[in-house]
Amino acid sequence: MTAYLFTHIPKAAGSWVRRNCVEPNFAPEDMIHFGGSARQLPEVRRAVAARRGRDVAIWGHFVYGFHRLLPADCRYFTVMREPIDRVVSYYYFVQETKIAGHHHPERDLALSQTLLEFSARPSARDVQARYLAGFVHDRLLARGRGFGREAACRRAAFSHLDHRYDVVGFQDDLPGFAARLADTYSWTCHGDRGRTWTTDRRPDVEELSDDTVAELRRLNVLDLEVYGEARAKVAGRTQRPPTHALTPATS
């Protein structure tokens, strides 16, 4: 069996991908949400094993490396977003997220801090690079910088883009991503089933001051580099899917 792992980077079209690319190809019982919590891991492992050979799709806010913990061959795909736009969207999204009884765990913090204060926390910086680089890099950079951590994260993210992710898409071209995903996996994917979850009162990046944008860019240098590398690979058609699925022994 194969587990198709959708690395859902926060505020990067996750709901759209699920509706347009995952749901058309999997029965509801074969779609598993994993939020990245260690407490949920045994439940997810049992759910995968219970499929008895049927392919599954797993989606959620988990970083690269999850395949090592699953009793299945795995394949990865993801969607990225222009880094500064993603940071701004995330800040205002967290402030607004209090619906259907769900109170985002960082909502009170976001309401009490400015965009720059909220985004300067180590755990809020370079999120996309950390997701693609994997668990160790994610945890180390969430605690702080230095000691060669940035360079190691960059190398790992670049390597995984080259050799571990079948398809990498971009929020500003979701139909193109859906078409490449359909071609890679022989799936049925749609390009127009609903919009992404938008944040109503957020400003556009162009409305921010030059100093604010410059500081956000400084705080997310790795994300800008990794995003640029991913776009160059896709534009130049140099991204090649792995020739085989990843097993738990794959690094």
Describe this entry's structure for a reader.
The protein has 251 residues and is an alpha/beta fold. The strands form two sheets. It has a five-stranded parallel sheet with strand order 2-3-1-4-7, with helices on both faces. Strands 5-6 form a two-stranded antiparallel ribbon. Strand 2, helix 2 and strand 3 form a beta-alpha-beta unit. Helix 6 packs antiparallel against helix 7, helix 6 packs across helix 8 and helix 6 crosses helix 11. The longest helix has 15 residues. The two termini are 19 Å apart.
Descriptive terms for the model:
five-stranded parallel sheet, 45% helix, 251 residues, 11 helices, globular
Which structural class is indicated by helix and strand composition?
alpha/beta
Major β-sheet annotation? 5 strands, parallel
Helicity, in percent? 40-55%
User: What does the radius of gyration come to?
Assistant: 18 Å
Strand portion: 5-15%
H/E element sequence: EHEHEEHEEHHHHHEHHH
Q: How are strands sequenced across the largest beta sheet? A: 2-3-1-4-7
Low-pLDDT regions:
none
- State the end-to-end CA separation: 19 Å
Number of strands: 7
> Helical region count?
11
The average pLDDT score comes to 91
Form type: globular
